[in-house]
Structures
1.
Amino acid sequence: MEERANGVNSGGESTGADDLVWIDACLTDDLPAGEMRALESDPPVAVYNVEGEFFSTADTCTHMKSSLNEGYLDGDQVECALHMATFCVRSGKATSLPATLPLRTFDTRVAGNQLQVSVPRAWVSEG
Ligand code: FES
């Protein structure tokens, strides 16, 4: 497994179409229920623990590009700290204005004690 300077580990296992790859996000114990964090991919991806279920979306608000990780997670709704738009982290759907466009969502899985997210390989490639 390749150790990356930005803290993202790439397992190198392709998920098929769209050249997605599973990456290590964090230890599941490091993301308790009701918490979220952003990965240092480019662009950044956010992971969420909603009552023991893990979800992942783009971290960048579709309104004016604030980091959602700086906002608040309430149930399965993440609220942007800048103008208070909300999104459903399950579907990515914008659920309140001023955002109208959805967030991209990503598959998650738990491997041992590691939370993993399937993201485009180019977002975590060396360069
Ligand atoms: S930047 Fe997120 S609501 Fe405006």
2.
Amino acid sequence: MCELYSKQDTLALRERHIGPSCKIFFAADPIKIMRARGQYMFDEKGERYLDCINNVAHVGHCHPEVVKAATKQMELLNTNSRFLHDNIIEFAKRLTATLPQKLSVCYFTNSGSEANDLALCLARQFRGHQDVITLDHAYHGHLSSLIEISPYKFQKGEDAKRESVHVAPAPDTYRGKYREDHEDPSTAYADEVKKIIDEAHSSGRKIAAFIAESMQSCGGQIIPPAGYFQKVAEHVRKAGGVFIADEVQVGFGRVGRHFWSFRMHGEDFVPDIVTMGKPMGNGHPISCVVTTKEIAEAFSSSGMEYFNTYGGNPVSCAVGLAVLDVIEKENLQGNAVRVGNYLIELLNEQKAKHPLIGDIRGVGLFIGIDLVKDRENRTPATAEAQHVIYEMKGKGILLSADGPHRNVLKIKPPMCFTEEDAKFMVDHLDGILTVLEEVMDFKSGIEVSENTDYRTKMPKEARVELPDLSATKAREIRSGKEKWCVLRPACPAQQKTQDVRAEC
Ligand SMILES: Cc1ncc(COP(=O)(O)O)c(C=O)c1O
């Protein structure tokens, strides 16, 4: 494959022409990816990386069936959805067949943000209410309407938050307000939402919607406790609002047993609006909002017409249909169950071995590894997480860290991820944590030095914080031959850096 620019030139040109408009993964030592297939990506030298984070390339990078479907339709016709066409009908039929019956009307859009923005419009139009309840640490998209409801973005400062937006605690039973030892965390967290509704009412405000991811991803791979969504939906509907389930990251079978993650919460829970995106087009920009006839009719009867130039075009729908076909044909949901369970089992063995692992949580191929400095206080191991990620990259494995403390290693690979991939990843994680913990034991009495020799370049703040991970170096430290410092408490500047973290 021909390279237009050398890696160095690409970096310099990117800096000049793109610069701050788009943050890059592994900023201290970015990767130039030239091609990808299945769960693997290849750089300009042909080096292979195991992709453990790309939930957009859902059925595998460049899946031939998806590529073929796009090409074939592109050769024939692409136009907007104001003409009759089979693809949009077929796609809407197939999508709604995966959902509870009352979710029957599809609006096709082009990105997760467009889908969530439209979901807010539908909710606000429905009863004329304006206020939105969102979860702490949530991310719902990059449009201004969504930044307003994304505490992950708007930074939590009281003045940054709009009066019409209310933030409920994330239903995180590991580090949240109510934890696994609480007798009924789902009611406790749902009561927090009820409290917000009551307070809003007492100041004359009205709730249009509660929005949440069915499992919170950017928020740190959080799985809400059973029963929480049912209770929240009851409170919200009583207040005249609707429940929006954001399945942009976690839909399309990622959890394995169900096609939609909200289904994990039981047959008795049906959202009023579901938004979807990322995996839907396997990299092709397509997304959708599905809602009830009642909500859709309330929207159109207001005179509001929704038109989207590209939404639901024949090529996008052909791609979406191909993705659905591949999920089915290759039994990718079955694979998510099998490989996901195996991976969680391997990771739990690592948890028993490594004190740095505080919690393993996940379902199907959506897993989080919560790294802690000490298990008792659950102090987030932020710098360590960054360090692990760079070391993993050095081994050809792509991971990212997220959550409010950036200490949760996120795993959400293409759904064709195999048991061998899982074992490969965990074996390397084991090696990296072993050496890291060995060095951490010698925290006290070690002096500052910056003579590190990483295979992979790290951001300065991670480098001054963390050790050279070679086992020899650790032994030298232990024997007192080497003066090595690494584990100073994180400095505030470092806490602010966002390196291997992204809303994806
Ligand atoms: C949960 C969630 N919702 C919505 C979005 C926005 O999607 P997009 O980037 O396609 O606009 C994202 C993107 O990361 C997301 O994670």
3.
Amino acid sequence: MTCGREDIKKWPVSKAVEDFLRKCEVHEDETLTQFCHDHSQLCCSACVGTIHSQCSKVTQISELTNSQPTGLEGMSVELETVLGEIKTLQISQKASIQSLQKTYKEHSAVMIEQMRGNLNTYIDECDNSSVGTSGGNEQYLKEEMCKSVLSIVNEFDNITTKELNEMKAEVISIKGSVTSSIHKCTSVHNDLSQFHEIVQKIGDHKQLCLIASIKCKHIIQQALTLLGKSGKAFNVQSNTKHNVRIPSDKDVCIMRGICVLPDGQVLIVDSKNQKVKLLNQQYQVVSHWDVNARPVDICLITPSEVAVAVNTSKIHEVQFITVNHGKLVPGRKFQLQHECRGIGHHQGDLFVTSGQELYKYSLNGKLICSLYQDRSANYTVYKCDVSPTGDRLYITSYYQLRTLARDGTLLATCTDPALGGPSGLHVTPAGQVLVCGDWPYTVQQVGWEGESKLATLATRRTREDGVRYPRSVCYSSTTSSIIVGQWLDDNIRVFRVE
Ligand SMILES: [Zn+2]
Ligand SMILES: [Zn+2]
């Protein structure tokens, strides 16, 4: 049979493409011949004998092609869209690294300039006071000068150098995680490009079309997870409660903020008892730090450091805390010129809410800009969090969840009746948006677009399950659990999810 240029779809598929598509990714020497409906996965005979031995429905690929369309139509366009988004993400991640380094350099330059200023001021003072002094005092003056210069330099060493080192460690850690994410993007980008090319070449070969389309869907799903658009709904398997009250607590706990370290340790902000508590992987309090003011929210900066928002009538500040061998060690802090209610972090950018505004700060505490404001009521900008790629910001309003673009433009509002008074908010590493609130008591998962509810994870407490006045929520990848902190309750709720 001969095919002309116009019959490109009927051209035979090259052996290389066919071998590539049919190869099992787990068992290199095996060919994919079957499909497991339970896992929606292609299998070779070795897969069927091992990973899918207990699965209820495994069929031959040849049977499938007779009964259903291959689903390859439109795949090319979808691949192109996702390819473009991954490219954009890589560009923004590279920009993040540069801006982080710039922040650090600027901050150290400012600090050194400040010390130079202090020295100059002191020398000028000496110069003025030495005018009119009679001879014989020069030696004394020199000694005094040496002492004071030394004390200025020492202060720089003890305070500023420590802060700069702290910040340097953050920059290195964040840079490392961004770099590893860039590598993941590169690898997914390569896979997507490869399939984009192959999809054009398969032609009418039904089985190969089906295999390619299933493989494409898997890669696109991986890409969407990286893009924070996974959209996978959580399913609650079981729930437990854990008491986090400690002997020095004078009151019942109010847990306004929770965050989980990558190793599974949990940090809780107990605003009533004015403490930050560290829980081990079994949710037992192993350490705490007395804030001596009201801590209101917490966010992760690096795998071993968090930032805590502190707010009383007179104090508005962000306090950094390092977790070191099961102990909480306070680091630097910076003051805010406004109230603070919530805090979020993304690759060196800190987002702080005041109740009516959302502000962006750099790691050194420099206010970059105000991103959003709504002065129509008191708690229109309450808690905030950021999508994994940084291109969407979520804020809870007293009756809504709002989604903003990177520049603060309002993209979406969610006014689901089940989300009456959203108070706690958390975005998972795959971009799943968790919201908890009061009217009614509930923990919900909202789609990444921030428009509609995806799943109800917990509702009003009946006997032992459920929640009452949930105030904070966080997902732990290590334990596949959603942790919920409540108002006037000594227990955290832990929901195991799939
Ligand atoms: Zn296999
Ligand atoms: Zn299976």
4.
Amino acid sequence: MVPVHAACALLSFVPLLVLGVPPIWTQPEQVHLSYPGVPGSMAVTWTTFNKTESKVEYGLLGGRLFEMSAKGGTTLFVDSGEEKRELYIHRVTLTGLKPAATYVYHCGSDEGWSDVFLFTALNDSTSFSPRFALYGDLGNENPQSLARLQKETQLGMYDVILHIGDFAYDMDEDNARIGDEFMRQIQSIAAYVPYMTCPGNHEATYNFSNYRNRFSMPGQTESLWYSWNLGSAHIISISTEVYFYLEFGLDLLFKQYEWLTKDLEEANKPENRAVRPWIITMGHRPMYCSDDDQDDCTKFDSYVRLGRNDTKPPAPGLEDLFYRYGVDLELWAHEHTYERLWPVYGDKVYNGSKDQPYVNPKAPVHIITGSAGCRERTDRFNPNPKDWSAFRSTDYGYTRMQLVNATHLYLEQVSDDQYGKVIDSIWVVKDKHGFSAWF
Ligand SMILES: [Fe+2]
């Protein structure tokens, strides 16, 4: 017979056995880098599920390990799903880094450190020729290009990644566990090179809160829109979603437009454009596309391109603004395809010349690269594209870009379906940048 006191002791454990005890979760995970836009800096962001301190210990590769350390801040992100899961998002900005030097780091606290990772501090020279991988629409399920991107990043093929909206499908799902798993999946890329982002429609749930909390882009807009410089380029990231989710505030659309105008004006000051002649934009939903899905870009009066007349006051579109300020290259995603356009403005083609369309083009060049891989698979094309459509592919894949110098920029499309084969490439050559280059 069990003594009475032993039976009581046993009973006192029953509720614990029934409910289970959640694990202590102080181990850092979902480590990712971003470039704050200030030369010699790098931001490290990660997650824990219990509150801990936010520290990064780092040192030059080949030097004494972890000889330097930096502290940062922690924000509590409570997901809006039923479970109201709590995530502690840690952010530490490293400063005073030597351009082009490689650093070894780990992040966490005395309650647990991450694995060791490496990154190379961005070279702040305007003669630096950075190499990018860029894509949109990469999900947790069917992330077709992910393994190739992970491996190529670890082989040192890229300096920066641009993820042009639509993450995880969707980060908020399963009480934000899909977001957690997606951030773990991209760690093998994003812990090694800055992972620069813009929001897409799949981030919209709970007013983009998973996106705004998990990423750490430059500026004070919770990563919604911002700009930064690298090599000979000024790179602008925007939210096209302000044109579609008016329930989160029409004022955002106007705020972004006002900011964009000022940013483009500043980038076009002769002393600035002389140093950073390329202006490159990235935004999720394209102005043009030849997919057959009735998205915004399939319509002549696309909101992103021409604005909206059904708002008070009417909302200006972006095509005229980008043209007026001589934007050279516009990167888009959302359509689960790859499409390269001839230089286009106002629905018309403005090639540099018949033989060399991308040599001194007379309008911005558009690339749509939204086929990295997600559960929605790839899209289909309209059989009769307009004149501005130069090359199309429904293969899964992503784009590589090298900003070679002030006059030359190289783009190529990798097909994951064809085992990494380059299926398209162009050189954009510009002797002159800015509005006057169109004439
Ligand atoms: Fe999308």
